[in-house]
UniProtKB/TrEMBL annotation:
Keyword terms of this UniProt record: Coated pit, Cytoplasmic vesicle, Endocytosis, Golgi apparatus, Membrane
Pfam family, one: ANTH
Gene3D superfamilies in alphabetical order: 1.25.40.90
UniProt-recorded name of the protein: ENTH domain-containing protein
Keyword S-adenosyl-L-methionine: no
Localization per Swiss-Prot or TrEMBL: Cytoplasmic vesicle, Clathrin-coated vesicle; Golgi apparatus; Membrane, Clathrin-coated pit
Membrane listed as a keyword: yes
Protein origin, superkingdom: Eukaryota
InterPro entries recorded: ANTH_dom, ANTH_N_plant, AP180-like, ENTH, ENTH_VHS
Sections of the chain in a coiled coil: none
Domain (ENTH) ranges: 27-165
Cross-referenced PANTHER family: CLATHRIN ASSEMBLY PROTEIN, OS09G0468150 PROTEIN
SUPFAM superfamilies per UniProt: ENTH/VHS domain
Length: 356
């Protein structure tokens, strides 16, 4: 039984949905008709509620049949997203994409990850989205632009990590993460932490219009983003713990880079406490860990800077001494007193050359 139509906008939306279904039946290939109809059922114009979970589950099941089918389904969802000017339809399309990331079958997630695009900035092409039908749809448009940027960043971070963040299908990989991370190079760890911090930076840009009263679609967005946030916090905790273990082995350059990333993360703390007002033990542990590690890195940078200055001073004095000895003994003079320093054996540490 259909839902009760209460406004003219609902009536127009229902007519558009019927027209879309008829058009799909007329122009779709027989093999793709079920996919088109599944997408239309989950992305209706009805603004009162999120996509029906039964329809979402049916869509995910359809996408699990073959690589060809999964690819076709992703193209249909993206085509629906890019063609619509309706805020409700666009928001539902983004929710479907997020659900694929969260609980879709691997084959469907894989096709989403390789969907033709440059990745990163404006991957979903919604940075200019505006629905000016009413003041409400105009406000929701800001959420759509945020949500698209957020999903773009989530996809980018997932590519860096090698699995979809907070995805149920990747739980087996994440169970062994701590063991794998202990084998990472410092540069790989820094890359991971940077990508996770980028995701938190995007998360806290959530619009201030919390929440448009009674909009269940936005509540659904907040719920999914909140779950991702906790997963991001846990991923960061694992990596920051590993950095604490190997802090003394960090090069000066790595310690500076990590310190800058942690500073960006600390700048998100205040806003995150507003967006996610309920305190969790993991988030409290994250902020205390960031503060502790930042202080240790600052101390390490001071120590390494002092050590470099001391080493440079000794080397310069030694060079001057050698120069004086050579002049006194009428030895062959070199153009630079640092010649011997340039010929000392090299010690390779994590891809960087350091002088003994």
């Amino acid at each position: 039984m259909g839902k009760k139509i209460t406004t003219l906008r609902d009536l127009i939306g229902a007519i558009k949905d019927k027209a879309s279904q008829s058009k799909a039946a007329f122009i779709s290939k027989p093999s793709n008709l079920s996919l088109h109809l599944a997408v239309l059922r989950t992305t209706t114009h009805a603004p009162s509620s999120p996509p029906d979970d039964r329809h979402v589950s049916a869509l995910l099941t359809l996408g699990d049949s073959s690589r060809f089918t999964a690819s076709a389904l992703i193209v249909i969802i993206m085509d629906r997203l890019h063609r619509t000017g309706d805020s409700t339809v666009a928001l539902k399309c983004l929710l479907i994409i997020h659900q694929i990331i969260k609980r879709g079958p691997f084959i469907l997630q894989d096709q989403l990850s390789v969907f033709p695009a440059t990745g990163g900035h404006n991957y979903l092409k919604l940075s200019a989205f505006r629905d000016g039908a009413s003041a409400s749809t105009w406000a929701i448009s800001a959420w759509i632009r945020f949500y698209a940027r957020y999903i773009e960043t989530l996809l980018f971070t997932s590519r860096i990590l090698g699995y979809f963040l907070s995805s149920s299908s990747c739980s087996a990989q994440k169970d062994t993460q701590e063991e794998k991370i202990s084998t990472f190079l410092n540069s790989d760890l820094i890359r991971d932490v940077d990508s996770l911090v980028q995701l938190i930076e995007e998360t806290v840009k959530l619009p201030d219009s919390l929440l448009l009263e009674g909009n269940k679609l936005l509540y659904e967005v907040i719920g999914l983003v909140g779950t991702d946030y906790l997963s991001t916090v846990n991923e960061l905790l694992i990596r920051l713990s590993e950095f604490r273990e190997r802090l003394s082995c960090l090069s000066f350059g790595d310690s500076v880079e990590l310190g800058c990333i942690l500073k960006r993360l600390e700048e998100c703390k205040e806003r995150s406490s507003v967006v996610f007002s309920v305190k969790k033990p993991s988030t409290e542990l994250l902020w205390s860990s960031v503060t502790e590690l930042s202080h240790k890195i600052d101390d390490l940078k001071v120590e390494k800077s002092g050590r470099k200055l001391l080493t440079f001073g000794k080397s310069s004095e030694s060079a001057r001494f050698d120069y004086r000895v050579m002049n006194f003994g009428d030895s062959v003079q070199f153009s630079s007193g640092r010649y011997e320093m340039n010929n000392l054996p090299l010690m390779v540490v994590e891809g960087k050359n350091w002088r003994n």
